[in-house]
Amino acid sequence: MLSERRLQVLRAIVQDYVGTEEPVGSKALTERHSLGVSPATVRNDMAALEDEGFIAQPHTSAGRIPTDKGYRLFVDKLAGVKPMSAPERRAIQNFLDGAVDLDDVVARTVRLLAQLTRQVAVVQYPSLTRSTVRHVELLSLAPARVMLVLITDTGRVEQRMVDCPAPFGEASLADLRARLNSRVAGRRFADVPRLVEDLPEAFDVEDRGTVSTVLSTLLETLVEENEERLMIGGTANLTRFGHDFPLTIRPVLEALEEQVVLLKLLGEAGDSGMTVRIGHENAYEGLNSTSVVSVGYGSGGEAVAKLGVVGPTRMDYPGTMGAVRAVARYVGQILAES
Questions:
Q1: Which of 43, 227, 310, 316 is a plausible cystine mate for 120, CB 3.0–4.6 Å?
Q2: Cα–Cα distance between 235 and 332 in angstroms, integer?
Q3: What is the pLDDT of residues 286-302, one digit of tens each?
Q4: Model confidence band, residue 58 (pLDDT cutoffs 50, 70, 90)
Q5: What does the alpha-carbon distance between residue 47 and residue 51 come to, in Å, rounded to a whole number?
């Protein structure tokens, strides 16, 4: 275990390197921080930190920079989550409150996260598999054609066209709509198949084929995997950190284009707790020079999706973690009220 003083030295190195982008020397540390010891003692502490792999010397006669291991210790033990100021919180709320639908909520969240953190923002759409049914609407478009509209508790709207095997009257459609909603409204998607399996039997024989067709379309909508959607923004922010990426930024950009990679990264976040993956902790090689800060968001204390940011390991972790947590909380409130 590192002594308290060496932990303080590591904290100071991380803070200075993140702030200045320059390797940190012992003289600069003693001048900028009240460590209460001589530069010689700081040099000894830095040598010990280097021996244990928490800091490294990028080239001869340079100061030291944190390693992935050093950042990991900083995040786990030394960094508090920086709270957002009252004006920042109001700005977040005002920006997100103007959203008109779920797509707008996600788009605004991506822009806001990218602006607040100056990193790449990634937001996953709420997962249908974790959602509940708010309402099912059935609209007659023609004697044998119906539009099915599924509205979820997260504000997501899915529309499907249903070609019926026979004409279906307005009275029968209204009856199906009422019976369907009485069974499924407020229920989890996983429960719906069981709740509607005997519904065709409640209708006249000549209407049962159409009822079964509508139900089949509804169930297909519930199980489709198209909910695994992402929105990404702020990729241009990476150009500000070109020197933070070895040789080239290209592997990072290629990784960000792979939706499966990003979904897996976000999936590592706990439902509500924050997850920070640093450097080589990211399994995907193209992201070995980045850190990913992610958290779940949702209403009622249960995460329905994840959001986060991707940036260089030389990151303002307290500020980034605070912004990600605050935005997730506000998005969850919006979903609860929508």
A1: 310
A2: 24
A3: 888 899 999 988 876 67
A4: confident
A5: 6
Q: What is the pLDDT of residue 37?
A: 83
Q: Enter the tokens of residue 257.
A: 């284009």
pLDDT in tens, 193-210: 999 999 999 998 999 999
Whether 24 contacts 17, CB under 8 Å:
yes
| Residues 269-275, mean pLDDT to the nearest whole number | 69
Cα–Cα separations (whole angstroms), residue 196 to 8, 182, 193, 211: 62, 10, 6, 10
Residues 6+ apart with CB under 8 A from 144: 163, 164, 165, 166, 167, 168, 210
Q: How confident is the model at residue 211 (pLDDT cuts 50, 70, 90)?
A: very high
Contact assessment for residue 306 and residue 324, using Cβ atoms and an 8 Å cutoff:
no
How many other C-beta atoms lie within 10 A of the C-beta of residue 274?
Answer: 18
Would you state the pLDDT for residue 225? 47
DSSP 207: H
Structure token pair of residue 89? 């919180």
Residues in contact with 112: Cβ distance below 8 Å, sequence separation at least 6, in sequence order: 92, 95, 96, 121, 327
First to last CA, the chain: 49
Q: Exposed, middle or buried by CB within 10 Å (0-12, 13-18, 19+), for 201?
A: exposed
Ramachandran region, residue 36 (left: φ > 0; alpha: ψ -120 to 50; beta: rest): left
Mean pLDDT estimate for the chain: 86
Strand 157-163 relative to strand 230-233, pairing: unpaired
